[in-house]
TrEMBL record:
Domain Rieske intervals: 33-138
UniProt name for this protein: Aromatic ring-hydroxylating dioxygenase subunit alpha
Gene Ontology molecular function, alphabetical: 2 iron, 2 sulfur cluster binding; dioxygenase activity; metal ion binding
Organism: Falsiroseomonas algicola
This protein's record includes keyword Ion transport: no
InterPro entries reported for this sequence: Cholesterol_7-desaturase, Rieske_2Fe-2S, Rieske_2Fe-2S_sf, VanA_C_cat
Keywords, sorted A to Z: 2Fe-2S, Dioxygenase, Iron, Iron-sulfur, Metal-binding, Oxidoreductase
Amino acid sequence: MSSTTLARPVATVAAPTDKEVQAALATGLRNRWYPVLPSRFVETGGKPVGLTRLGEKLVLWRDARGAVHVQTDRCPHRGVPLSRGQNEGDRLRCNYHGVEVSPDGTVLAVPGQPGCPLEGKKAVRTWPAVECADAIFVWFGDALHQEAPPFVPPEQLAGGAFSSFCCYADWNASWRYIYDNLMDPMHGTFLHANSHTMYQGDTSATFVTRATEKGFFFEKSTQRDVNFDWSEFLDDGALYVRLEIPYPKTGGPGGNFGIVSVITPIDETHSACFFWRFRKVEGWVRDVWRFLYRTKLEPRHWQVLEQDREMMDGVGLGLERHEMLYQHDAGLIRLRRYLAREARAQLVELRASGRT
């Protein structure tokens, strides 16, 4: 008998179709950190908060020490939402039958039948969460990446030389269309032409893309620091779009007014939008900027955002079928291709592991 070992045939992994890739992207690209709610909405020892993000039902709560916890919003007994239960300071108690769940998802008590097999089981998924820049970020990993890497925010959200405000709103639009809007600087010249800062500059332009280590710039080739002249996309643990709006001296200290945006899918057609407005200011200048922003500038910025929201509102999926794009749209085209490539790679990895 031959001692030669016959090699086993390698199973071929079917390549994901475009339809499967788009379906995977519909509720968000996985293996990224996403902000889910401003920190102020979850009170220490207060009522649990139920919400949906990336199609997942979640419950957020703070224990008696103020630490935030994010778990699947489902009691392991009968499946009702834990967010309708009670925060006991170190655990959640379901109102339906009194089942108690710890911050790590372990069932601590089943009052109706003490000692039953459910007690002691880790039966509720707990999601990695951190707080940064006045928001709660959650790691949404796929079946192969549920352990979260360290969260490292962009420097504009890390404090230090920058001061920021977290501005939050829910929009009736797909997260991808809102990112498309952010990667389209030219719309500022038209949609926001009557704003307090974006009335200057050319109404036509040529754009170029410039690759960076973790993303790319999409920028006007002949105009800088006049209008909304560029956007930067970054994929650095989370998906960010950064841009700057030139400000006159009457707009206060700190140079250009910057925005860091992260759009978190709620479901296929609704999004939780986080827009951090920032400037590079320290010391007493920081205090001046923050006072000026709250008293004078913030209402104007919400007016500009409302113009964007109105453009996006109610736009259903499948918008791409009706588009006739041109050179100004190269930024959003590049972003779409990038997201599709990342989603495709995730699907291939999941299939190869047999986890789909």
